[in-house]
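Our working data are protein records whose layout never changes between entries. The record below serves as our worked example for the rest of this section:
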Amino acid sequence: MVDDEPTASPGLPLAQLAELQRAFESALAGADPESPVPSCGRWSVRELAEHLGSVHVWAAGKVLGERLERPGAAAARDGASDDRSLASRYRADAELLRTTLSSVPTDQPCQTFTGLGPASFWQRRQIHETLIHLWDLSQALGSAMPEVQSAVWEDCVAEVVEVLHPRQLGLGRAEDPQDSLLLISESSGRQWRVPAGSSAEPAAVIRACDDELALLLWGRLEETGLTVSGDARAAAAVLAGPLTP
């Protein structure tokens, strides 16, 4: 069955966010802040950490409906720049997000990418943001990616197809693909059509595990290493999107 309509988040727990954030912090603690992160263009480890931390605080502000200052901003202004302070600044940002999310009901209304929605939107969004950037950091440091449940990767795919790509189209950041692409999870059998809701016969089909599909949609993997049937050029054109911010 193809998931053409947006589905509810599987209710990924706050503990999942905490686990991913702690893994990111742990990797930061022993990293050279100036090491490059190839999967993030010209970013360094420092820039990746500052980005993720600032996004956590921004999301917390969306939940509360106010603009928040990063708790680690004062240390940054004071010039603290060693790897330990980088990890501690990220930890402060991560804790602020978790504290905010735990302080409100999951169904509390707040602004989301699609208008007014539940606070759980941001919990889901930040789980996947942290997941992808943990992969970026692991790759940059040459370390193994921590084990993450397949359901988390599966929901990461669903979020791109159902939320992020439609938003990219709505904001004019991407053009509506001329063809459609069918994604099939070899982990669960779940299927997604890109763009979401397309009734056109898919020009290509890609079969892969959930983590591979998620990384593919986020531009971290090339489709050439996966099982692609049909028009490979059409598949590449759809994936070029960009599907994500």
Q: What stands out?
A: Strands lie at 2-3, 109-112, 115-118, 181-185, 191-194, 204-208, 227-230. The first helix runs from residue 14 to 29.
